[in-house]
Amino acid sequence: MLEPLTNSQIRKFKAAAQQLEPMLKVGKAGLSEGFIRSVDAALAQHELVKIKFSEFKEQKKELAPQLAEKTASHLVIRVGNVMVLHRPKPVSAEPAAVKETQSVQ
């Protein structure tokens, strides 16, 4: 379960999202498995993803929270036909492993 975002985090993400162009568009297929995988991959790489509704504009109020839930992300904002999702990158053990190998040398 994700920790809820604080108000200051939401403000920071909203400000950052204004500079972004939409990475993905909800098209005719809607929230298909392939689209959800694409959003998941984008969140893994970028943490903050802007998505535009080019189709399903009438259902965006219901679809935005569903997409956030299915991708285990936070719905930062939904304005007009655009939504912004945030998911923190997982803390990996890779940097620790790199430090260990560097200290051995």
Give an overview of the whole structure.
By secondary structure, the chain is an alpha+beta fold. The protein is globular, with a radius of gyration of 16 Å. 46% of the residues lie in helices and 19% in strands. The protein has helices at 7-18, 33-46, 60-70, 94-104; strands at 24-26, 48-53, 74-79, 82-86. It contains four helices and four strands; from the N terminus they run αβαβαββα. It has a single domain (7-104), classed as Translation Initiation Factor IF3.
List unreliable stretches of 5+ residues.
none
Write down the domain tally.
1
- Gross morphology is globular
Q: Total strand count, please?
A: 4
Name the average pLDDT: 87
What oligomeric state do these chains adopt?
single chain
| Percent strand | 15-25%
The third-level CATH topology is: Translation Initiation Factor IF3
Describe, in short, the structure shown:
By secondary structure, the protein is of the alpha+beta class. The chain has one domain (7-104): 2-Layer Sandwich (Translation Initiation Factor IF3), CATH 3.30.110.60.
